[in-house]
Amino acid sequence: MYPVTWSIFVRRTWISLGILLSVVLTAVHGACPGDVSTSAHSCFTSYSFHFENMRSSPEKLCCGVDVETLRAFCHSYVKAISCLSTLRRACPPDTHHLIDSVLVNLDGAQEGLHDLCADDSIIESYAMYQTCFRSTGYSSERCFQVHMNESNQHIKFLSNVNTKRKDKFCSGMRNVVECVQNTVRGRCGEGAAKLAAILVKPMVRQSTDCDYSVINAKQTTSRPSHGNPAYISDEHGGRQTEVQDGGNTGSDARAPFAYVILAASLVAMVLGSLQPAS
Question: Region Disordered: which residues (predicted)?
């Protein structure tokens, strides 16, 4: 009888493992919406509204934009990225290209927005200097007009600057960053000057592709660290970035584990029901 019992044990074990796997897969993929593309675009509804507020603000990001306008924009950006991250976890890999397709609207902008928005201390620091940034706003805007004038366009926020050569584009961006920093430093101090580089780069898409080490070496400044990354994988830009959803600590994050515990209990019940053959 022992071989028969062992055969039953093995068969029931495989059945139990199948139940466990099915429950886990259901927990991971069960919440995936039917129309993944529409859901991905809906993640950016609030972002689109606040993006237009930033674009239409009379004061630009580099030059004294209202701190509450900036705070609302950054909050909407972080929530949008978190929403996409949650959607990717809920849906199977073969749908991820549909989810990531919305990132085309952030082409050349994600790294600059990350530096600006991922760390709340950046916004709080800007709140201290907003009045001073506004007082130097005209001179800071002139930096763009002087050093990026070949683009022949009015630079607002996340602007696309049409340049034929990357070296000329990057040279212009380095000059703009240094120009704004020098302008701000004279009236607002070194802390504001360091912050200026973070505010200038999101004004122009692709600006973070440039090397600013020459400026950093001259001014011996360092970029603030960020403890809450808000990236997801961007297939369009070729950049693999880390996703950390710091806000997803509620019941939605714990639900899969509850399913796993339930499945494990089922396995234990099945195995416990086996009685040694007499």
Answer: 220-249
Looking at residue 109, what DSSP letter applies?
T
- Contact yes or no for 137/35 (Cβ under 8 A): no
| C-alpha–C-alpha distance, residues 161 and 181, integer Å | 21
pLDDT for 74: 96
What's the Cα-to-Cα distance from 245 to each of 102, 103, 211, 229, 259, rounded to whole Å? 18, 17, 29, 8, 21
Q: How far out from the chain centre does Cα 6 lie? A: 52
Mean pLDDT over 76-97 rounds to 94
Residue in 134, 103, 84, 93 with CA at minimum distance from that of residue 245? 84
Could you give the number of structural domains in the chain? Answer: 1
**What pLDDT score was predicted for residue 219?**
60
Q: Which tokens belong to 240?
A: 């693999």
In a domain, 164, yes or no: yes
The distance from CA 57 to its chain's CA centroid, rounded to whole angstroms, is: 23
The answer to whether residues 156 and 185 touch, using CB atoms and an 8 Å cutoff, is: no
Q: Kindly state whether residue 235 falls inside one of the protein's structural domains.
A: no
In sign, the C-alpha dihedral spanning 49, 52, 54, 56 is negative
Does some domain include residue 231? no
Could you tell me where the DSSP H helices lie in 118-212? 120-135, 137-147, 166-188, 190-200
277 against 110, higher pLDDT: 110
In DSSP notation, 205-249 reads TTGGGS--HHHHHHHT--PPP-SS-B---BTTTTB---B--TT--
Helices marked H in 91-119 — which ranges?
A: 96-100, 110-117
Residue whose structure tokens are 């993944």:
36
Q: Does residue 275 form part of some domain?
A: no
- For 76, other C-beta atoms within 10 Å of its C-beta total 21
